[in-house]
Amino acid sequence: MALESLIGILGNIGGCIAAPIGRQFGYLIHYKRNIKNLRTEDDKLVALRDGKQQLVDAAKRNAEDILANVELWFTHVNAINEEAITILEAEATVNKGCLKGWCPNPKARHGLSRKAKKKIDDIGKLIADGNGIGVNVSCRPPPPPPPPPPPPPGIESTIGDGNFKGFESRL
Fold first, then answer.
1. Distance CA 32, CA 66 (A)
2. Has residue 145 been placed in a domain?
3. How many structural domains are present in the chain?
4. Confidence category of residue 165, pLDDT binned at 50, 70, 90
5. Single pTM value for the model
6. Under DSSP, is residue 66 helix (H, G, I), strand (E, B) or coil?
7. Residue 92 lies in a domain
8. The domain containing residue 107 runs over which residues?
9. Which of 7, 16, 104, 135 supports an S-S bond with 97, CB 3.0-4.6 Å?
10. Helix (H) or strand (E) segment spanning residue 45
11. Which segments carry the region annotation Disordered (predicted)?
């Protein structure tokens, strides 16, 4: 009876521990796949950003105001793109390893693969947000205020005809 309950408890503990450990080993096993996916997702994001930038440029040429959420999206895209480029540049140093590349550094590969996987998720969210923007990246600016009404008939301004004389104390 005690042995069965102990086996049940150990089985539950083992089930809870297996998933996180498997995920950590997955970063090592799927290192190349994660880096490759980061590269392709970043390329997709850059292409989407360039397409939206053309829409923004066209809106600016038409003297339209760019929406705040579009400008914020561009800010996030540029930040994530810089981080992805940093990860991809770090890949070259990680691939060197030791003994001229014969012995890879598992700790560095694990960290880089983990960062790449997280960036892939962030990039996927930004791509979904960018596709949600559509073609509406701007709004028309408000029209200029109307000119002031002319003075009522019979009342004329004396400022412009030279008959105006200021007080000496005000000059």
1. 39
2. no
3. 1
4. low
5. 0.72
6. strand
7. yes
8. 40-138
9. 104
10. helix 31-61
11. 133-171
